[in-house]
Automatic annotation (TrEMBL):
Enzyme Commission number: 2.7.13.3
Ranges where the Histidine kinase/HSP90-like ATPase domain occurs: 321-402
Membrane spanning residue stretches: 7-26, 32-48, 102-132
Keywords linked to the UniProt accession: ATP-binding, Kinase, Membrane, Nucleotide-binding, Phosphoprotein, Transferase, Transmembrane, Transmembrane helix, Two-component regulatory system
Key word Protein transport present: no
Record Pfam families: HATPase_c, HisKA_3, Sensor
Domain Putative sensor: 7-186
Database matches in CDD domains: HATPase_UhpB-NarQ-NarX-like
Residue runs in coiled coils: none
Protein name from the UniProt record: histidine kinase
A GO term, aspect molecular function: protein dimerization activity
Residue ranges occupied by any Signal transduction histidine kinase subgroup 3 dimerisation and phosphoacceptor domain in the UniProt entry: 215-282
């Protein structure tokens, strides 16, 4: 029944689609005659886009993948908007889809209903022969085909079962066919998709360069304010100790102790800085061991599901590690939950990382830099981040990194 409702909705979309085609055809001579067709054609384009948007969403739910809008960005000026929309290939693909949707939508509903009615009529043919013993003007077609013969009407029962089985299975294929048609006509073309991907990669490359420059400035600042200052102080202590070691051995000894403590602090800061750039455990033992180390250092329990059978490229492992670390930090600091689950799956072509916490939810990338940093880090590899965080939780970060290299 749910499938028939989907097909009925497709047929309902097809009815105004045909009406829009008629209005579009009428608007052409009206434009030539008096210019009034411009308003009509503009209304047709706008209405076609609304219907196409609805069908794209329905098709995306069936195909389990997003179907992006193929339209060019529209300016604010109304005449310019009309000119851009008129030149947009997406507009003409919408208009080509309208009559297709009318025919496939109507056929998609009529065919299963006709099969159900035919199957039911075949199944009840023996009963109809009994209930209608004499020929009447309203004899069902199946009785006319069998000459109202008892044995032949019983032979229709298996045919009714077959028709009912076909009617039960056919709608799901018709639904997928309509979804594929919508994806083919209403989605972006391969050229448009490639252009959009180039634009996206250009933007993400610029963001990655900016992030790298910011990270280099941070490292420079940490070195200048931390380890470098301690090393300067260490050199001063050693110089003073060298000057007073003959006259004041006790004071020189104290200065050397301070210098040793400063050297230890500088070494600790340098190790922390290096660990922030590339953790040694990640380089030595791989991504799984590095994530296990993150889980062990977490103040909340972390459940791990690591399905990694190989070492990935170092940049991919680094991006996955820091994205996981940032997701864990966000879950602990902002989620407020009592448990976090981390799942890493190597799916041959992509590395999938899922971080789920049972916190309060409501995570919003626009409210902080953590999620934006994760998205920027993944976008450098043409990766994706999907966020599900309804109020009340749970929060789920689903990350994908291409790793087929």
């Amino acid at each position: 029944m749910r499938e028939l409702r989907w097909l009925a909705a497709g047929a309902a979309i097809g009815v105004p689609a045909l009406a829009l085609v008629v209005v579009a055809v009428v608007s052409v001579p009206a434009t030539v005659a008096a210019g009034l067709g411009l308003v009509m054609f503009g209304a047709v384009m706008w209405s076609a886009r609304q219907l196409a948007t609805v069908q794209r969403r329905r098709a995306a739910a069936v195909l389990d993948r997003q179907i992006p809008d193929p339209y060019a960005a529209l300016p604010a000026d109304l005449p310019a908007r009309f000119r851009v929309a008129l030149r947009d290939p997406g507009t003409w693909r919408d208009l080509a889809w309208l009559p297709c949707q009318f025919f496939v939508g109507l056929a998609g509903l009529v065919l299963p209903v006709a099969l159900w009615l035919g199957g039911i009529e075949c199944l009840i043919a023996p009963g109809l022969r009994v209930l209608l013993p004499e020929p009447t003007g309203f004899d069902p077609a199946v009785l006319e085909l069998t000459g109202r013969s008892g044995p032949w009407t019983w032979a229709l029962v298996p045919a009714g079962v077959g028709l009912a089985a076909i009617a039960y299975r056919l709608p799901r294929y018709l639904i997928r066919a309509q979804a594929w048609l919508a994806a083919a006509l209403l989605g972006p073309t391969s050229a448009a998709g490639l252009a959009a991907r180039v634009d996206r990669l250009t933007a993400t490359r610029a963001a990655t360069v900016d992030a790298s420059a910011t990270e280099l400035r941070r490292i420079e600042r940490d070195l200048h304010d931390g380890a470098q200052a301690r090393l300067v102080a260490l050199a001063m202590h050693l110089g003073v100790a060298e000057d007073v070691i003959d006259a004041d051995p006790t004071g020189a000894k104290a200065l050397l102790a301070e210098a040793r403590a400063g050297a230890g602090a500088a070494l600790t800061e340098l190790r922390d800085l290096v660990r922030g750039i590339h953790p040694p455990v990640l380089a030595d033992r791989g991504l799984a061991a590095a994530v296990e180390a993150l889980a062990l250092s977490s103040p909340v329990p972390v459940e791990l599901d690591l399905r990694l059978d190989r070492r990935l490229a170092a940049p991919v492992e680094s991006a996955a590690y820091f994205a996981t670390a940032e997701a864990l930090t966000n879950a602990i600091r902002h989620g407020g939950g009592g448990r976090v689950r981390v799942c890493l799956v190597d799916a041959a072509t992509v590395l999938r990382v899922v971080v789920r916490d049972d916190g309060r939810g409501g995570a919003d990338p626009s409210l902080g830099t953590g999620l934006l940093g994760i998205r920027r880090r993944l976008s450098a590899f043409d990766g994706r981040l999907r966020i599900s965080s309804p109020p009340g939780g749970p929060t789920v970060l689903d990350m994908e990194l291409p790793c087929a290299f």
